[in-house]
Design brief:
There is one protein chain. This protein has 439 residues and is of the alpha/beta class. The chain has two domains: 150 residues, Rossmann fold; 231 residues, Rossmann fold, CATH 3.40.50.720. It is 39% helix and 16% strand. The strands form two sheets. The chain has a seven-stranded parallel β-sheet, with helices on both faces. A six-stranded parallel β-sheet has the order 2-1-3-4-5-6, sandwiched between helices.
Length: 439
């Protein structure tokens, strides 16, 4: 959604006079190569060999050193999961520094480590924790759309590491930068690369417009049958989204006491099952705290948090979400960093992080994952209404120096919904271009 300022600074004249241009990010299109250019895989970690074979099977050219290719690198994967002491971190520099100089536009750096929470030796914990500071700092140095992210394995998390590394290498993670994803030992693979959600039924709330409409489109593109849910007042727009994705529409206020059971009833009667629920419906009622009336407080807490707790009861109950199900909640960086004028919204979105971390272990034995995605500045109708200076600041204060698109949020949700992402649960994945806020 380009406004006048964006149109001006990206105009041919502005380009000619040297106004710095944000890099056009590489975004996922089914059938595209996973990554453009050879991938350097090194570091001697526990997953290096299996990652190399997996990437080669996916048609990627894997090299062991920068000297093995004359092309610019599409990505660097440094597996330091076996590093035990700080001396071994020198590999980050010896492998990484010459390779970073050879990165192509929109390249990826992915570091793989062992989750420090699973270690007890102080030196090992310190060494593995160092990887986080490294990758987040490198993310802030990379240019031209390149990103750096960290995957932390809990135990022998081979499938989880593969899935997370592939996500970070792909165009699906275009606006995910400076993030850490933890993966556990749960096994899970995605056989169908073009339609990884084939046969799944997904419910998306707040689907009539904005990020929700895009989530519906991306989940459908990836093979899911979508139930698009939104307020009765959004009926026309909702019907259009449902038609476009060849799914069904359910007019429903998510704060209704029976919202969860109506979702279960609709999805099971019309489509036979529910596999994925995306709690996207959300509202803002911004005011400085001292001016916030009861209605603005209550409505934001109830739409953004209370309703989700209630709906989950029915969705996780008899006849609801099946084995291997997925729940994804839309949090926000306002729930992590806080935001002036958004005490109600920040509280609701932080509450969702609590929900995700507490619920995930409770449903783990049913193979159900519960995660949150926390968008940063995303170009939507909501952010187009933000005053000019604040909006422009929101766009720029991140490592990629631009706002994200609804599609970037949708791609992260689509990945978390895949069978292959079974090892990722209880996580909060920021889709924020490595925003400086709450980083
Ligand atoms: P939006 O306002 O464009 O769309 C929200 C949708 O939710 C609307 O279609 C609305 O009708 C629906 N909705 C609201 N209350 C509802 C209710 N009670 N029952 C059913 N549907 C309801 O918002 P968006 O920008 O697309 O944001 C989507 C989600 O992402 C929200 O949860 C928002 O908090 C979160 N988010 C957005 C941004 C951003 O930059 N746009 C950043 C962080 C988080």
């Amino acid at each position: 959604m380009a406004d006048l300022f964006t149109t001006l600074i990206t105009s041919p004249v502005a380009k000619k006079v040297g106004v710095p241009q944000p890099t056009r990010l590489r975004r996922h299109t089914p059938g595209d190569p996973l990554v453009e250019g050879p991938v350097l895989v090194a570091g001697g970690g526990r997953f290096e060999k299996s990652l190399t074979s997996r990437l080669e099977e996916a048609g990627v050219t894997v090299v062991a050193t920068v000297d093995d290719t004359t092309e610019r690198l599409g990505a660097i994967v440094m597996d330091l999961s076996a590093a035990l002491d700080p001396g071994e971190l020198a590999q980050l520099r010896s492998i990484g520094a010459p390779a970073v100089k050879r990165l192509a536009k929109n390249a990826r750096v992915v570091v793989v480590g062992t989750d420090p929470a699973t270690l007890s030796d102080v030196g090992e914990v310190a060494t593995q924790r160092a990887l986080e500071g490294f990758s987040r700092s490198l993310g802030k140095e990379l240019r031209f759309g390149a990103t750096a992210n960290l995957v932390l394995a809990q135990g022998d998390a081979t499938d989880g590491v593969h899935s997370a590394v592939e996500f970070f290498l792909s165009g699906r993670s275009a606006y995910v930068d400076g993030q850490v994803v933890r993966v556990d030992e749960t096994t899970g693979t995605t056989d169908e690369t073009l339609r990884p959600l084939a046969g799944k039924v997904a419910v998306v709330t707040g689907a009539a417009r904005g990020i929700g409409a895009e989530i519906a489109a991306v989940l459908a593109r990836d093979g899911a049958t979508v139930v698009a849910v939104d307020m009765p007042a959004a009926g026309e727009a909702l019907a259009k989204v449902a038609n476009d994705v060849r799914g069904t529409a359910l007019q429903l206020d998510v704060t209704a006491a029976d919202a969860g059971s109506r979702i279960v009833e609709h999805a099971t009667q019309r489509h036979g099952r529910i596999d994925i629920v995306v709690h996207n419906a959300g509202i803002t009622r911004d005011r400085l705290f001292v001016n916030l009336d009861e209605a603005k407080w209550d409505s934001v807490i109830d739409v953004n948090l209370g309703s989700i707790l209630r709906m989950n009861e029915a969705i996780l109950g008899q006849g609801g979400l099946g084995e291997g199900g997925r729940i994804v909640c839309l949090s926000s960086i306002a729930g992590i960093a806080g935001n002036r004028g958004q005490t109600n919204y920040g509280a609701s979105k932080a509450g969702l992080i609590g929900l995700v971390t507490a619920l995930a272990p409770q449903v783990r034995d049913r193979g159900i994952t519960v995660n949150a995605v926390a968008p940063g500045f995303i170009e939507t109708e909501m952010t187009a209404r933000v005053p000019f200076a604040t909006r422009e600041m929101g766009r720029r204060i991140n490592s990629l120096q631009q706002g994200g698109l609804p599609r970037d949020v949708a791609e992260a949700i689509a990945w978390l919904s895949q069978p292959g992402a079974a090892a990722v649960t209880g996580q909060v994945l920021r889709v924020c271009g490595q925003s400086w806020l709450g980083a």
